[in-house]
Design goal:
The structure holds 2 protein chains of 2 kinds. By secondary structure, chain A is α+β, with helices and mostly antiparallel strands. Chain A folds into 3 domains: 1-213 and 430-459, Uridine Diphospho-n-acetylenolpyruvylglucosamine Reductase, domain 3; 216-318, Alpha-Beta Plaits (2-Layer Sandwich), CATH 3.30.70; 320-421, Alpha-Beta Plaits, CATH 3.30.70.600. Chain A contains 17 helices and 19 strands. Chain A has an 8-stranded antiparallel sheet with strand order 15-12-14-13-17-18-16-19, with helices on both faces. In chain A, strands 5-6-10-8-9 form a 5-stranded antiparallel sheet. In chain A, strands 1-2-4-3 form a 4-stranded mixed sheet. In chain A, β5 (94-98) and β6 (103-107) form a beta hairpin. In chain A, α10 packs across α13 and α14 (343-357) runs antiparallel to α15 (385-403). Chain B is an alpha+beta fold. Chain B has 2 domains: 1-216 and 374-440, 2-Layer Sandwich (Uridine Diphospho-n-acetylenolpyruvylglucosamine Reductase, domain 3), CATH 3.30.465.10; 219-340, Alpha-Beta Plaits. Helices cover 32% and strands 18% of the residues of chain B. Chain B has 14 helices and 16 strands. Chain B has helices at 6-16, 25-28, 51-64, 116-123, 142-148, 155-158, 192-196, 230-242, 255-265, 285-297, 306-319, 346-365, 384-387, 390-403, and strands at residues 21-22, 44-46, 68-71, 88-91, 98-102, 107-110, 128-129, 165-171, 177-181, 205-212, 214-215, 219-227, 249-254, 275-283, 324-329, 337-339. The radius of gyration of chain B is 22 Å and the shape is globular. Classes of the chains: A alpha+beta, B alpha+beta. Chains A and B meet through β9, α8, β11, α9 and α11 of A and β9, α7, α8, α10 and α14 of B.
């Protein structure tokens, strides 16, 4: 921290209140990011207090990281510095909710699980469905652009976020967007905050459009003998009039891992999971058409799941990274955005890279355009030199293979051991739009105090 | 603004040929208006054929320090395509090619001058369409849709243009060509396409657009609801939403508007009703049937701010001596109050602008936004301080500065005009001196 840490802590306590500044080493360990611990944690209770803390940090040139549920602090490149954690988890209120207008405004520190309950009481939901759903906060979900299996039907956060309030690197509280469903006034600065890993501002409030819970839901499972058969089935679904909520392909190793997490998936198969929702007739229709489609391919038959199996399976798919890392703490999980027609080739490359580097691998495909590939080193952390060398080479090869023009994927490594981050750029290849991103970073955070170094291109 | 510079004209002609440059007053007049009530005459109008042309025009504009404004079909309703401070208007009518159709992945790559509906026509044989459907879709261009983040009746279910754009090719004001986003659904880094869509031509000139194509629904049912009062109609909308039904479109016409429409196109609206609702439900047959039946059942239960808002708009109009007609996207609460006035009468014009400003202020007080789908442009820019604080606007202006440091891209739009350092004026737009039919 600054030249006089005691003074700084005293000042922080003035800003956020006595008892809301943490300096205990054991507690600070819980805020660690890539081996660095902050000198202090400030837990402001209001957006104004967040602004005050940021102004203080800017004056003292402290490196600040905003935290919420602290479930995704491992995402991103290792920070260049880390003096102060700005924990917004006290800011956990629903500020405005109008079910009739389908609009919602919440503080950034509200837990997704708590919010989900509030919405469910009114027969509504948000399609965020993030990993680590029990602890994750709305601010963190937005800042990491946490992937949701429901994107198939609802799009991603940018599609249903209406507006935001955040604090810039100069400590100015600002807002962008609005609170109504339809609004194109001014620049959509809030979209820049999605997936920005807190490098542009500290999110204090997020406004969403909410959705009615469907009257009925059904989940169907088909087992295929190959990736090709499973992906062909997904493409057939895309060409059909069906409008499923979620279409995912679980690769055999991933199926085995998720089965450890209580999902029931047949062994040795590529499983296609389709969830339908809406009116009961719509769900039935999906069941019938999926069964017909499966006959026309080399896929096994589609079968409907019982309620209990359904929620276990969908829960496991949502928590894919969590289950993979429980199975293999050194797991290196790539998140690759890719067009549906290129998925088969990408998975083949992943298989070859894994084989060459002698790692077990697993994959989960979000049919709307995201492939998660996990390389699974059996060695314990910290990785030994030989394993690390092999892992770094495999990661480099997979990033290169997924970015070649024939595949056109946009890869990043979402989860990996810290040692690997020192060898490989987790954000994938740098592109010519980096210059624009750097200019924006300068506008939002001119002193570079927010999460320095964690983002794309060293931002 | 500076009158045309012969040297600049010659240089523009070297890039585009004589056919690609207009500078005679009688030619420029055609580009001094759009769908809004504003007017502004450019000094030059050019017709680029390629990104390369755009780059050269931009470099030239920089050298001569003249403003640049992109224009599609000129159907916009906020003055976005008008050269408020003169300069060069780049018309994209010759960059109107569909560059790539990737039907299996549901993507299209288009030049900005492609007409919105032409894209749908090019892909509907495969059961696909381009979802944003502004009312001008037969003539408006996708470049214009992107600049203004256009909406339409079906945005209730499918979102505005921003929800359907995955990638852009930009020409920055210094002439650099940069691609942001792409065909994939996401990419690491800041969401630059999300920022650029709806930036009203103030950040970059967009030369190529990658869009999502949506699958045509299997079944569509259109319902007409007839009401004795506007309140009953709006309250029905609220109840439909509360039942968990999201119609694909939900439009309301008040009595005055529906009679005007009926007299003109004979659509079959009952002339003696106070309001009608036009609802469209679409999707799988099974869903459409259930939802259509349920909508027909809906009674009337009052809630939310829509009915009160409409009543107040009517009062404001009357207090200024105007009839205000209402046709609007009721499902998502996007209002289009229509003030009827004679633009040739300068006093009436000023009064109409004052009425509009009063309505906008009231909508903001109700927690609404300035614009749901038309953009801010030069029509609502002076009202921005009512919705945003000086700090909000300052950050937005610095973002503009990061892309457009010289301020040559579409100057005088989106932000309050007279805003200097920290000073923001709130006053209605000055009355245009060159309204049609008025001789000086």
């Amino acid at each position: 921290m600054s030249s006089s840490p005691t003074l700084a802590v005293a000042r922080l306590a003035e800003l956020v209140g006595e008892g809301h500044v943490i300096t205990e080493p054991t507690e600070l360990a819980g805020y660690e990011v890539d081996g660095l611990q902050p000198a202090a944690v400030a837990r402001p209770g209001t957006a104004e207090a967040v602004a005050e803390v940021v102004r203080f940090a800017a004056a003292e040139k402290l490196a600040v990281m905003a935290t919420g549920g602290r479930t995704k602090l491992r995402i991103g490149a290792p920070p260049r510095g880390y003096d102060l954690a700005l924990d917004v988890s006290r800011m956990n209120r629903v500020l405005a909710y109008d079910p009739g207008d389908l609009t919602l405004g919440v503080e950034a520190g509200i837990r997704f699980a708590d919010l989900d309950r509030v919405l469910a009481e009114k027969g509504q939901f948000l399609p965020l469905s993030p990993a680590f759903a029990d602890q994750a906060t709305v601010g963190g979900i937005v800042a990491t652009n946490s992937s949701t299996p429901l994107r198939h039907a609802y799009g991603s956060t940018r599609d249903y976020m209406l507006g935001m309030e955040f604090v810039t690197g100069e400590g100015n509280p600002v807002k962008s967007g609005g609170r109504v469903v339809k609004n194109v006034t001014g620049y959509d600065l809030h979209k820049l905050m999605i997936g920005a890993l807190g490098t542009l501002g500290v999110i204090t409030r997020v406004n969403f459009r909410t959705f009615p819970l469907p009257h009925a839901q059904g989940t169907f499972l088909a087992s295929c003998e190959s990736a090709a058969a499973a992906l062909a089935l997904c493409r057939a679904i895309a060409r059909s009039p069906l409008q499923p909520r979620l279409v995912e392909v679980v690769e055999p190793q991933a199926a085995q891992i998720l089965s450890g997490g209580r999902a029931t998936l047949p062994a040795g198969c590529w499983s296609v999971v389709v969830a339908a929702a809406g009116e009961p007739g719509v769900v039935e229709r999906h069941g019938a058409e999926l069964a017909r489609m499966a006959q026309g391919t080399h896929a096994g038959a589609f079968a409907g799941l019982a309620d209990k199996e359904e929620s276990a399976l969908l829960g496991c798919i949502r928590e894919f990274p969590k289950h993979v890392m429980e199975f293999c703490p050194a797991a290196t999980i790539f998140r690759i955005s890719v067009l549906p027609t290129q998925m088969e080739l990408l998975l083949e490359h992943a298989r070859q890279v894994a084989e060459r580097s002698q790692f077990t691998w697993a994959a989960l495909v979000r049919a709307s355009g995201i492939v998660f590939v996990a390389l699974l080193p059996t060695a314990a952390a910290p990785l030994d030199g030989e394993t690390l060398r092999r892992l770094a080479q495999a990661a480099t090869e997979l990033i290169r293979a997924s970015s070649v023009p024939e595949i056109g994927g946009r890869p990043m490594i979402e989860w990996c051991p810290l040692e690997l981050k020192r060898e490989v750029n987790v954000w994938g290849p740098v592109r010519d739009d980096l210059a624009l991103m750097q200019r924006l970073k300068k506008v939002f955070d001119p002193q570079d105090i927010f999460s320095p170094g964690r983002f794309v291109g060293g931002i | 603004m500076a009158t045309s510079d012969k040297k600049l004209i010659r240089e523009l002609e070297q890039i585009l040929g004589k056919q690609g440059v207009l500078y005679q007053p009688q030619d420029l007049m055609l580009y001094e208006y759009d769908g809004s009530v504003e007017h502004a005459r450019p000094d030059y109008v050019v017709f680029p054929r390629s990104t390369r042309d755009v780059v050269e025009i931009v470099r030239l504009a920089n050298r001569y320090q003249v403003p640049m404004v992109g224009r599609g079909a000129g159907t916009g309703l906020s003055g976005g395509a008008l050269a408020r401070q003169g300069g060069i208007v780049l018309v994209f009518s010759r960059m109107n090619r569909i560059l790539e159709l990737d039907l299996e992945n549901q993507r299209a790559v288009v030049q900005p001058g492609v007409v919105n509906l032409d894209l749908t026509r090019a892909v509907e044989h495969a059961g696909l369409y381009f979802a944003p459907d502004p009312s001008s879709q037969k003539s408006c261009t996708i470049g214009g849709n992107v600049a203004e983040n256009a909406g339409g009746p079906h945005t209730l279910a499918y979102g505005v243009t921003a929800n359907h754009v995955t990638g852009l090719e930009l020409v920055l004001p210094e002439g650099d060509v940069i691609r942001v986003g792409g065909k994939t659904v996401e990419a690491p880094g800041y969401d630059l396409p999300g920022l650029l869509v709806g930036s009203e031509g103030t950040l970059a000139i967009i030369t190529e657009i990658t869009v999502k194509l949506s699958r045509l629904p299997e079944a569509v049912k259109t319902l007409l609801g007839v009401y004795d009062s506007v309140d009953d109609a709006t309250e029905t909308v609220v109840e439909i939403t509360a039942r968990g039904i999201t119609p694909a479109a939900c439009e309301m016409l008040d009595g005055w508007t529906l009679r005007a429409v009926e007299d003109y196109v004979h659509a079959g609206f009952p002339r003696d009703s106070a309001a009608v609702l036009l609802l469209e439900v679409e999707g799988l047959r099974e869903a459409v049937e259930v939802h259509a039946a349920e909508i027909s059942d809906v009674g009337v239960i009052p809630r939310t701010k829509l009915p009160a808002t409409l009543r107040r708009i009517d009062e404001i109009g009357k207090s200024f001596g105007f009839q205000v007609g209402n046709i609007f996207h009721a499902g998502d609460g996007n209002l289009h109050p229509i003030i009827l006035f004679d633009q040739r009468d300068l006093e009436q014009f000023a009064r109409a602008v004052a009425t509009a400003n009063e309505i906008m202020k009231f909508c903001l007080e109700m927690g609404g936004a300035l614009t749901g789908e038309h953009g801010v442009g030069m029509e609502k820019n002076e009202l921005m301080p009512l919705m945003f604080t000086p700090a909000d606007l300052d950050l937005m202006q610095r973002v503009r500065g990061a892309f457009n440091p010289s301020g040559l891209l579409n100057p005088g739009k989106l932000f309050p005009f007279g805003k200097g350092c920290g000073e923001i004026r709130v006053r209605p737009m000055p009355v245009s001196a060159n309204a049609p039919g008025v001789s000086a």
